[in-house]
Write a structure and sequence with these properties.
Shape: elongated
Distance between the termini: 38 Å
Helix content: 10-25%
Order of helices and strands: EEEEHEEEEHEEEHH
Number of domains: 2
Number of strands: 11
CATH architecture of the largest domain: 3-Layer(bba) Sandwich
C-alpha cells in the first residue's frame, strides 16, 4: 500500500548517520547513499541508542528466544481452544500462543536468560540453555506440551527503565521523531504506531495523548537503566 501511494522502499540499507540541515531539515547517510528530507523518523529498534544519543543509556537491548513445541495432543492447544496468555511462574512471566500458522505450541519467557548488551554483540543463535529455560516452564505449567522441540528463534527486545515506549521529538530538533524502544510489547501496537508517526511526520502532532511516552519523563523521574 505504501509503494502504491508513492513511497520508496530501500531494503537492507544500513543507517550510518544523520544530521540536521540549514532550514530545519535532515540529511541521512546510509551504506548506499545520502538523502535529504524535511522530517526524519528514527525507529531502528535495538540500534536506536546508536542513532539517538539521548537514548544510548535508556534503550537496553536484551536477547529473547521463542520456542515451538509439539504437544502430546494438539487439540487443547489449537486456535479457539487455547488463549493467547501470560502466566506468572517461579521462573518468571511466560507468554504463549495457540498452534497457528507455524506448527507447534509457541512459548516465550520474558527476560529469558537476562542477557543484555549492544545489539551487534548479542547472539542470534539458539542454544541448549535457551531450550532448557523454556522447557522448565512447559514442564511446570503446560506438561501436555512437553514434546519435541520444533523450532527456536532469537529476537531482541529493547527495554526502557519503565518498559514503556518512547515516542517523541528530539530536544531542539522538532523535525526528528524517535519511535521505540517498545520493551517487548510493540508489535500489537504497530498499526496505531504507524498512524501516530505518520501524523507526527506530516503535521508535527498527533490526535492521541502521547504524554506517557515523552523522552523527558526519565529525567523528571531521575530514572536510571
Amino acid at each position: 500500500m505504501a509503494i502504491a501511494a508513492g513511497a520508496e522502499i530501500h531494503g537492507r540499507e544500513a543507517l550510518i548517520g544523520w544530521e540536521p540541515t540549514p532550514g530545519g531539515g535532515v540529511r541521512v547517510t546510509t551504506t548506499r547513499g545520502t538523502y535529504e528530507a524535511e522530517r526524519l523518523i528514527l525507529s531502528t529498534g535495538a540500534w536506536i541508542g546508536d542513532h539517538a544519543p539521548e537514548l544510548a543509556r535508556l534503550a537496553v537491548p536484551e536477547r529473547q528466544v521463542l520456542g515451538w513445541f509439539q504437544p502430546q495432543d494438539s487439540a487443547p492447544f489449537a486456535l479457539g481452544a487455547f488463549p493467547v496468555s501470560i502466566v506468572e511462574t517461579r521462573f518468571g512471566s511466560c507468554y504463549q500462543f495457540p498452534v497457528f500458522g507455524v506448527p507447534g505450541f509457541k512459548i516465550g519467557l520474558y527476560n529469558h536468560l537476562k542477557e543484555s548488551g549492544h545489539a551487534d554483540a548479542l547472539s542470534r543463535e539458539p542454544r541448549e540453555a535457551d531450550e532448557a529455560a523454556l522447557r522448565n516452564v512447559i514442564r511446570e505449567v503446560f506438561p501436555a506440551a512437553d514434546g519435541p522441540t520444533l523450532a527456536l528463534r532469537c529476537c531482541l527486545f529493547t527495554n526502557t527503565p519503565d518498559e514503556h515506549f518512547v515516542v517523541d521529538t528530539l530536544p531542539g530538533l522538532p523535525q526528528v521523531v524517535v519511535a521505540s524502544p517498545c520493551s517487548g510489547h510493540g508489535f500489537k501496537f504497530a498499526s496505531v504506531m504507524g498512524e501516530v508517526l505518520a501524523d507526527l511526520a506530516t503535521t508535527g502532532r498527533s490526535l492521541h495523548d502521547l504524554s506517557l511516552f515523552r523522552l523527558d519523563r526519565f529525567a523528571a523521574a531521575g530514572a536510571r537503566p
